[in-house]
Records
---
Amino acid sequence: MRRVLATAGHVDHGKSTLVRALTGRDPDRLSEERDRGLTIELGYAWTRLPGGVEIAFVDVPGHQRFVGTMLSGLGPAPAVVFVVAADQGWQAQSSEHLAAVQALGITDGLLVITRCDLADDDRIATVQADAGRRLAAAGLDVPAVEVSATKGAGLDDLRTALADLAARLPEPDPAGAVRLWCDRAFSVSGAGTVVTGTLGAGTVRTGDRLLLLDRGTTREVTVRGLHSQDAARESVGPVSRTAVNLRRVDDVSRSAVLLTPHAWEVAPTVDVRLTEVGGSHATGSHDLKEMRTPEQATLHVGSVDAPVHVRPLGDDFARLSAGVDLPWRVGDRAILRDPGSRRLWAVRILDVDPLPLTRRGGASRRAEALSAGDLAATRLRSRSAERLDTFERLGLLVPSTAVRQGDWRIDPAAMEAWRGRLVEAVRAHHSADRLSAGMPVAEAARALALPDHLPADLGPDLVRGLVAGSDLTIADGRVLDPRASGLGPAEAGVAALEERLREAPFIAPERGDLDDLGLGPAELAAAARLGRLLRLPDDVVLLPSGPARAMRLLSGLEQPFTLSAARQALGTTRRVAVPLLEHLDSRGWTRRVDGSLREVVR
């Protein structure tokens, strides 16, 4: 079992000393840190506890000047070791670190009272009670251990408490998607670029192809090698500190992130719920207005700190817009920080890459929609349609009411609205042209007036789905309403032609006769589509019953028969007999025996 824990607490309360005493490793890597006795960069050390549990520590700086670095180390950790010195008690940075822990939703860990050799029992009890009360009020009701790291007192109790903590933490998913926030990036001679981070879920293997999202740009990279706890590995699973050697990659920032391809929604803008933590201010985004929080603040997520524009939506909702893409899932937690006032807000992601607010009152309507609670339905309703794989990337279940359309899921209200537009457009098309074979599918798709954010290629497939639930039909690539179809002014001419053919079934009218009846190509096509006439090549027009009547006559001939014999039996001309026989051949009712003979297929 492996677990990664972050330290937290006021500067000079002994966090690094505690980690050093537990692990035998100095988390302060920089000579400046050792000279000043002050943690500046994130430090890492690990140890094996009794029972075989491996614990790695992310040691964060406690000084106010390095709050951003502290947040990048705290963010990926599932639990915290909160340190308070017995001789100094609770301090200003203790409160700021606790606010960050609370904002990130961390609810488990340990309270460690350090430097107990510098305080008497009453002082230790007072500090522990005060710190425990503050942590519990922030949702961190955790066990407390008293130690003196320099004397070694209490370390065995602390190791036992750490093993208990590791055992009760949720088991991470080794098959989950990888999102490795990189908190260090450096070059190794002969090996290339190495990035380090805390792997909270998923498994990374040598040879894996991952996406590197760095300063808003994405590229595919290959894992050349892996190290964890100073040992080369073929694979690293959660929860682990890991160093990833990337093949042929240069110039990676310390705020990059490695991702499983196609597993995360990448966008610069998110809609969130904000809750202020720490201090004496009331919670909720109404404070954003009352306290005049700057429109610009800093968003801390994983190891990234990005400037964002904050747009209040109403109640405790806001829209955060960063200048770069970031990888998200609905439900992610982050921290919003005003560097000037040092106020913090807990951020919970409710929607990713939301649509622009274009109409008056759009912000308040958006807040009302987000407050409904069903975030999957809210997203689908706002966008009308969404791809299935997007729900999977966002970690949302597809609403049970969604309408399936291939790879898309459609909001039922949008589906009905589009069906109404389609029916109206098709009926208008028929009204304008009574002889039309229907509206082409592509034209019908344009009539739906789909929102701009939906791709154009969704339209034709959507039309087919809409037709399935209506009185419309599709034939030969056209959408038509059978009830609206008719012959209009051509009805009289078609009726006269039908009467004529009933009397002489195989005496097809000449082109001039058709013209006299007012039957041009459009009128004949409409009559054929309605099943009133049969059109054969060379302007030969018969009744639809003509082929069956011809077969009865041809069956009475001596088999096989010639074209001339067929013509005489039908009482017609060569102009009619040739296309009629070819039509019978195509239906498999007759067949050629040789170049001049045919026979009826029995």
---
Amino acid sequence: MELNETRAWTKYYTAGTPMDIPPVEGSLPSLLEDAAERYGNRPAMVFFNRETSYRRLFDEVLRVAHGLQRLGVKAGDRVALVLPNSPQHVIAFYAVLRLGAIVVEHNPLYTPHELEVQLKDHSAKVVIAWDKSAGKVLELKDKLGLEHIISVDITRGMPLTTQIALRLPVKKAKASRAKLTQAAPETMPFTELQRSSRLPASVPMPATDDLAIVQYTSGTTGVPKGAMLTHGNLLANSAQGRAWMPGLVAGRETIYSMLPMFHVFGLMLSVVYAVRLGACVVLFPTFDVSLVAEASKKHPPTFLPGVPPMLERIIRSAKDGGVDLSQVRYAISGAMALNPALVNRWDDVCKGQLVEGYGMTEASPILLGNPFSEEATEGFVGLAFPSTEIKVVDFENDDHEVELGEEGELLARGPQIFQGYWNRPDETAETLTEDGWLRTGDIVVQNERGFVKIVDRRKELIITGGYNVAPSEVEGALNSLEGVKESAAVGVTRGRGAEVVTAVIVLEQGAIFDEKAARELLREQLAEHKLPRTFVVWEELPKNLIGKTLRKKIRETLNRNKNASRVEDE
């Protein structure tokens, strides 16, 4: 179609945004090296008001890289990171990449079972873990043949006065310290790597086409798949993001890292894009609006990425004089639908524009965004990024584009598109066409101006709090419970469009369902955000003629009859 062939939608871009970005060269470590040269004394990171300059960050990266090299890490090896947002996370990320090794990110709140599945898949021998998560990794050491487990005490990244305060023998200090750190015997402290000498400059930088990260994502089956992203993929997406916000000034911006860096959305904006921009990143180990408010007193944000639940709480705090939004010029929301009412409330407290974007792990992650101008369109996720082609095709035929305004599957192609799934050629072939188009699995509509609206998710993923939850993974845990015959997990909309994981179960004849016991058992298998908040007992599940459970029908029924659901665990 003419609109897609000519990318005519670029006429609605923000002034100064080009249709294309130049081809990228270099690597992520070379990007950091350049930032250290350009912005050496500029704060690269702030953690509880402790600043780390770009020059100091690069020095730390070289020291930790040398320490890892002495442990045997070499180009092509996978190194697992199991860390919350912290200075050590950023340092470890770039240190691994500087050796030409591959970073694999993991949620530090995962259960041992969830970690085992992913660690076994990518077979890393070195794990850098938050000391509060190290015990779970140690459980797997012999089983998976892990060679080195390096533990991180994130309080070491705080100001010295804060570290001393946390060690005071008083109840409040002990409670605060217990949330942040704990002893991790039988592991190597991260500080040992930090005390290494600098990596020799003779160690070659990775190439643009080398793999940088393997980022796990869930597909229709719920089996974790590692999306392979190169240095070039991530550099390209950061360059596209830079072009999308031409008003940001290199070396002068402050970005808030509220999104977890083990998620590709947070990783891109906090660790890659920020370095390209020479920005100061304010790190939060977990989202806590009181911490955000405190940080904004000294380091107010100028660019604020987030997800709707975060932004909602920030708006409430800003109205009460908490979070200082006076310097924000750009804000972007992703991972779940942005309610227009939330945008209106945002406009009441902040002069900087809030827009919605769209992406997925397989796209590094951003594909589409609303322009930062009056052209931003409510209810749409936006326009294709520079150097990004999109088309909306018939569900059964990738070669047949549907008419504008008709529903179809969104396909995308560009320099940010991933290289495939780790050790999964069949799934790769199902997702990537031979000519490089990414099948997103999302049902969309594109209007005559090129703006895209998400209609539904073919993959049936549940999006809760900005996280993707695979229904089949939850169902596997549910079906392991005594007395459960079968189950279905769906997302039920509550509040302002947010979803909660809802479990519909069918019991064996004569069985009685004990919710409290079920929750306790499920916590052994599932991370907190995957746990069902609502349990509903039905006599049977709706199925099609071949016996497949109709999750969409279940979700629609529950959304119509919300009063039939009981929420026991908010």
---
Amino acid sequence: MIDIDVILVTYNSEQWIPGCLSSLEKINYPKDRVTLTFVDNNSTDKTRELLKSFQSNSLFKSFNTFFMDKNLGFGKANNYGVQKTEQEYVYFLNVDTEVDEDCFLFLSKAVESAPSEVALWESRQFPYEHPKVYNPVTLETSWSSGACMLVERERFIEVGMFDEKIFMYGEDVDLSWRLRAHGYKLQYTPKSVVTHYTYMSANEVKPNQFYNSTYMNLMLRYKFGTWKDIFKGYAMYNGLFFVNGPSTGHKKIIFKKIIASFFDGGKYRRWYLRNKNKSFKADFKLWDYEIIRDGAFYVNQFPAAQPLVSILIRTCGRPDVLREALISVRNQTYKNIEVVIVEDGPDVSRSMIESEFADLNYVYQATNQNVGRCIVGNIALETATGAYFNFLDDDDLLYSDHVEVLVHQLLTHPDHQAAYSISFEVPTEVLSREPYIYKELFHNVQHKQPFNRLVLMHHNYFPIQTVMFERGIFEELGGIDPSLEVLEDWDLWLRYALKYKFKYVEKLTSLYRIPAHPVHHGSRQELFDHYLEIVRAKHMNKKLEISIADIFKDAEYLMNKPPTIIYQFKKMGGRLFIHKLKNKIFYIAKKVLR
């Protein structure tokens, strides 16, 4: 286990101190390895009195308090705390937080298992996880939130600590990028959880955050970007004149900051000029600094129970590809998982699985002869023992909270027998299979479709890894149709959805790959188009085992969404299909009412 200095900066923080300290006192970690250091930025409420009262009854190795005679700002106050402490690792923690009891335990494990070039570890925030993208396999991230980050002290000092010119907001991106410019890596630690009371409600816009974060975006372009990045920054910043700001005198504030930016920008530009030789290149995403995953204000909660979940993986002679999928399962925050791996053909992947994934609760078997993906999928379904099933193709990946999110939704919505979330579609250029080397061209959200049976009867909007379903559905309605070469998952979802409800979860929790080259994508699409009509015809005349109210609800959705849904129908040659759907609705309605 590592020794940790926890540094907290306070400013009129009396409402947060009791909860934060109470959670720290309950940690499942040796308290003689933890030092608490508070740096108070000249509070005028009862912050000082509260800290002194807790200090006298401290359970920790040390409890230090430093009271400033002015507000130094977030970064400068944290730097002061670092200079007054000495442990090898420093955990910067906002005071408006409560740490989970295993927060430090998982941080310590992450440090001990991380590659030597990792210098920073970021905890996951509840109830709103920061939505920036991270690598589901390596857990590497491009920048880390300063609300709950652990850094190696020596490397933190080496890169110059927090930039004290930044009073508040943006100092964490700045530190992250300087660490990366020095060749270090940053790692997300999703099993280490901190509840952060940063927003009183979803989509809240805080004036201080709005003006400081937008201004710092411009300053970071001066510090890390090209002149092109800076010009884009000014174009964006000038655009703020034409939005309704969160404060009165909004335009006046923006005008003053634009004037100040020409002077401040020169100060920030000095770092860029001194570090031209570094290979680091900043990647600005408009106002963001990384690709954003949908679900920024999804309210994360731990599931109330831990039923066994079976992750079903079909693979075929490519262990280096399978390895990444298995690592993404290993990284899940949900604990009770069974991995069922079925290999189509010889047991090529057996030795890799046995030597590298003994820590997983897995079942592996190979068919020896190639029998096809549908039969392999049915073997996995029949082998699985979980209460819930979730397919995962061997070249797709799960973000760390995927299982946790879907289990929670199924437990809290017992009237739904399946749940599905949002996923990235990632065109991928495979450079090598052994070793597995690839290039991701971009991340795209192809499907954000609320549950609608009529839309599902027209086209599939459930990428296979996005869906978790109850075991009982499979036992009642069967598995995959072995006569289908592709779209076997769509056929499966249609059979299940025409009788049971699927819960739509507005959070992105996985990614699936498609071929990057148009020639490969084109031949793949031809195969899909062929089976599209086969699956449609198979289900067109089947009886819908749902209420007339549900049928009309789905139909009403179609009528109210012509710009999106009807366009999709027309694009896929669906005019006749819509007509048939209408006839089907009327037929069922007449039959039920009779």
